[in-house]
Amino acid sequence: xxxxLIVIDVQNDFCPGGALAVPEGxxxxxGINALMDQFQTVILTQxxxxxxxxxxxxxxxxxxxxxxxxxxxxxQVLWPDHCVQGSEGAAFHADLNTTRADLIIxxxxxxxxxSYSAFFENDQTTPTxxxxxxxxxxxxxxxxxxxxxxxxxxxxxxxxxxxxxNVSVKQDLCRAIDFDGSLAAAQAGMQAAGANLQ
Length: 198
Ligand code: VGL
Ligand code: ZN
Prior knowledge:
This protein is α/β, with parallel strands linked by helices and 198 residues long. The protein has one domain: 3-Layer(aba) Sandwich (Rossmann fold), CATH 3.40.50. 21% of the residues lie in helices and 24% in strands. It contains four helices and eight strands, in the order E-H-E-E-E-E-H-E-H-E-H-E. The chain has helices spanning 29-36, 130-136, 149-162, 182-193, and strands at residues 3-8, 41-47, 68-71, 74-77, 101-107, 141-147, 166-175, 196-197. The strands form two sheets. Strands 5-2-1-6-7-8 form a six-stranded parallel sheet. Strands 3-4 form a two-stranded antiparallel sheet. Helix 4 links the parallel strand 7 (166-175) and strand 8. Helix 3 packs parallel to helix 4. It is globular and about 50 Å long. The two termini are 19 Å apart. The model has no long low-confidence stretch (mean pLDDT 97). Bound molecules: pyrazine-2-carboxylic acid and zinc ion. Pyrazine-2-carboxylic acid is lined by residues 9, 14, 47, 79, 116, 147-148, 151-152. Belongs to the isochorismatase family. InterPro entries: Isochorismatase-like_dom (IPR000868), Isochorismatase-like_sf (IPR036380), Isochorismatase_Nicotinamidase (IPR052347). This is Nicotinamidase. Its EC number is 3.5.1.19.
């Protein structure tokens, strides 16, 4: 068994004061840094959108953040502008230990498709390459932490389980947006997919 710690989107825009702030998003940083000591392999993900991304409400006339829109690949929540490539908001939280990262995988760079999951874009088809990276390194077991529990952690954990990885989510080192029942739905979905919720 070879395992990796996957730290999802611990970026300024998802922390208090950021454009898409997750309540208490910053509080998980010390615990995540400490957890890295228990892993030989640490992978970070980074939400990384071009300006004018199609998941931004500002890109759609008459739409406000948190409204839904139908995209060619299905329903999509519209977000405030966040994690624009190269911006301070897209940078990792200043206290996150990035030194231990073997891989930093970026996602959401396709202007037309959002990507919550670290494995596939929201069309659920276009791969990010993470699966190939893990398989070629013979990594079978994943522990996930980060932001946000109900979006990027959720989609990443469900995809990992579907792909056959053994995946655990440490919920005390995650925080949720929890919009419209999204946290409870995510917990049920992760469990149904076979992720181990800790
Ligand atoms: C995320 C909404 C939009 C996340 C990313 O990291 O959970 N949520 N983009
Ligand atoms: Zn995003």
